[in-house]
Amino acid sequence: MAFNGADALTRVLIDNGIDTCFSNPGTTEMHLVAALTRDAGIANHLCLFEGVATGAADGYARMTGRPAATLLHLGPGLANGLANLHNARKAATPVLNIVGEHAQAHIAHDAPLTADIEGLARPVSKAVATLRMTGEIAQATRSMLSEIQSGEKGVGTLIVPNDVAWADAVPGNLPPVEPPQPAAPDPVAIDAAAEALKAPGALLILGSPHITRRMQELVFAIATATGARLMGEAATARLSRGGGLPLLPRIPFQIDMALDALKDTSTAVLAGARAPVAFFAYPERPSELLPTDCRRVTLCPPQGAVEAALEALADRLGVSLGPLEAPELPALPEGTITPEALGAAVANALPEGAIVADESVTNGAALQPACAAAPAHDWINNRGGSIGYSLPLALGCAAACPDRPVFAIVGDGSASYTLQALWTMARAGMNVTVIVLSNRRYRILTNEMSKIGAGTPDENSDPLMSLDNPPIDWTDLARGFGVPGERAETAEALHTAILAALAAPGPHLIEAIM
Amino acid sequence: MAFNGADALTRVLIDNGIDTCFSNPGTTEMHLVAALTRDAGIANHLCLFEGVATGAADGYARMTGRPAATLLHLGPGLANGLANLHNARKAATPVLNIVGEHAQAHIAHDAPLTADIEGLARPVSKAVATLRMTGEIAQATRSMLSEIQSGEKGVGTLIVPNDVAWADAVPGNLPPVEPPQPAAPDPVAIDAAAEALKAPGALLILGSPHITRRMQELVFAIATATGARLMGEAATARLSRGGGLPLLPRIPFQIDMALDALKDTSTAVLAGARAPVAFFAYPERPSELLPTDCRRVTLCPPQGAVEAALEALADRLGVSLGPLEAPELPALPEGTITPEALGAAVANALPEGAIVADESVTNGAALQPACAAAPAHDWINNRGGSIGYSLPLALGCAAACPDRPVFAIVGDGSASYTLQALWTMARAGMNVTVIVLSNRRYRILTNEMSKIGAGTPDENSDPLMSLDNPPIDWTDLARGFGVPGERAETAEALHTAILAALAAPGPHLIEAIM
């Protein structure tokens, strides 16, 4: 077959190191399917729902630093992927969506699947482009790859009309994109931060799309040297931790706990972090969590060279990195699976190199703290708040890091959104351990209802927050998608089940009855 | 608690006969949950995924003619519901989305869940509005209810900031909406249609959001009297049929079959139908399915008074309605579940008053024709082409018509999109029989790839169309969501399983191995 537009697009992807595509194609993407699968250089993962594909692309890029592609079918296919693209956008993850469109002459006829694809893409995308002719494929794709990997990274949506995909084309042969490096640290900002951290009531807030171990070694030393307090943002796209690093405390999700934790802050130094804001607005509570008279000093913006800025700050302060006090593993838990027991069971089983996609919601309070004592691992948080992210994210992390054990720890409400991810994990034999926290309730709503001043759940409203009628059987759901499932009713059983899952290849699901 | 904005909105819904809400709420919707559940006049159905809620609202309105509400959580919640709202839009179904938004002062702080909700809503909505103060709730909601039920009906998205929901309010006390009746038939159009139908090669194409039995009695008589051919649109939002009515032939989905079926048409008379267009564009094939020199005569637009126009046309032609020849039931099928056997098994089991949400895709060729011989029933087609519609639609139909048996007949690829609908069916004990057509393949892509000129599936591309590794076990998935499941490997077993499902209350799932 002649070299066509789909081939030309694929060539640009390969030239730019895009080696993975998460797909749910349709008729309008068949030329793209042919081109993307013809070359052995691209791994193609079929997903049964588009929200799985977009979340997986997010996870892939969080672990590799490079975008993966998604292949989506027209406007409705993109629409199904939007919620996890929202999460990717808020995490500043680069993702390249390739969305098929009807042949251009067909669009005006308003066929059943015709939709405003650009309009659907815009709210979640940093860049949106519709290809009009094969001659612009190379430049347009390259520009988009550049844009989504520059400054604050983001989502790019490339819309490919079918006639552009099927028309004869010639290869573009442009050089690969070289995303610009973040600007060098600003000496004025370094000086200001160094000064600010010495003030009584100073707080250093660390954030970044990827908080590295080195960043933490630096901030722990800086905090010790200056006497400043230290906190991480409420959610981090990727946090490398464990293996002897102390726990990086987080700004709490819960509004009153967050206000209390920050109330004595006179000066906040922002290292790759934004000034913290409330997750939701509550009556009689502020949106900004720092006190109104708190001074804000930006060491480095989120898209800056955070690690280099911290190196310069440590240097400026004459800080030397000393030994750090490693946290202690909690004892092996027994009995009921409380949030504390969950944390202890996971922390005692987490192996070196693990990746944890954390969507533990109301049962997660003790999870991240307990796991600080585990061997070195990566922790993934949701920065966009749209639930149903962790199963797809875990899939993408496993595709990115096939030799590392991956965990998704997820509330039962959240897991119900994108459970189709289990099938793709099973298909590829990915080493993912899914722990579903089964409390048979949207517990967060029960907690939030009174906080937001809407009364307390009663016999009328409770049915919109409870998941116990009928109870969802997660072992059945897992088996349906080809994943072995087990139920754990005690903390001992949970710990044992995690070890068993790690010992056997392929994905496993554990339903932890909370 | 004081009467607040959420109460004021709920009052408008009740005053306008909105009695059903399909919900997946979050923190920003808690005041709406309290208000919507406080009054016993609104049935609230919790859905585990927003695409279930929006598809259910579509199904509800197709059967009742009245909109249901959805309650969705912020931009990402709406995003998850967009694909089925696309289908509702294409079916001209009135749906009212109520979407929570952050308190207005909070939006500028760009919290995790902040998103461009209006931007997300616009591509699928006929009307979008964001409430700014409690004083405008009654008028804005009433206007939206009017707009989505006037002319070509559609989707309305009402965005409710949390501070508008929680602020003190007074009831609006506006009179209920009275949607305008469609314009009376146009005598000039009646005359033109009557004349056109007498031409050799004339074709009457029938369409409407609801093709009633009366419309079919009229068009069969008109076709007989004039000698014109008769076809229905490729997909109908709701078609009342069976019980002695002859089969209304449909314009085929498959491009070459459609072109062949229409090639001798000299004059097309459009009764509530649009001039047919190809589902997709194909190389060397036209987008418009009627011959270029075919004359198009509009008897009545889709949003018009189709039945009245047909009455007037029959009158103008002096047609009298005679007895119609009832189709014959196919014999009870045996052996392998072929598409023909599927049709025969369902047709022989379909009870009086059944509602069938048809998403049978490539296995459905014989299904609708065979069921023409069944007792009177309603048939639901997808007019938007976004798959994952039939399980939510069936849920909505069951909520609308609790005393009627509802079927969802759905390919395994399509069923994987919104399988969470099973849980809500189980919770409410709805009488839905789900038949999953398990061919373990996106068969339509295998068929379409060569038609669209992208080659044939080979060892590289086939993994993006095949669902056999691992095989999905639909009985496990059903059980996981609390629905009894059974596998049928022969046509006899399928027929028996359908009868058993109908004999027992509550939902059932049958996995038909094709």
UniProtKB/TrEMBL annotation, chains A, B:
GO molecular function: acetolactate synthase activity; flavin adenine dinucleotide binding; magnesium ion binding; thiamine pyrophosphate binding
Keyword rRNA processing: no
Keyword field contains ATP-binding: no
Thiamine pyrophosphate enzyme N-terminal TPP-binding domain residues: 4-110
Any one Gene Ontology BP term: small molecule metabolic process
Keywords assigned by UniProt, alphabetized: Thiamine pyrophosphate, Transferase
Entry superkingdom: Bacteria
Domain (Thiamine pyrophosphate enzyme TPP-binding): residue spans on this chain: 374-511
PANTHER family per record: ACETOLACTATE SYNTHASE LARGE SUBUNIT ILVX-RELATED, THIAMINE PYROPHOSPHATE ENZYMES
Homology family: Belongs to the TPP enzyme family.
NCBIfam families: PRK07586.1
Protein name: Acetolactate synthase large subunit
The organism of origin for this protein: Marimonas arenosa
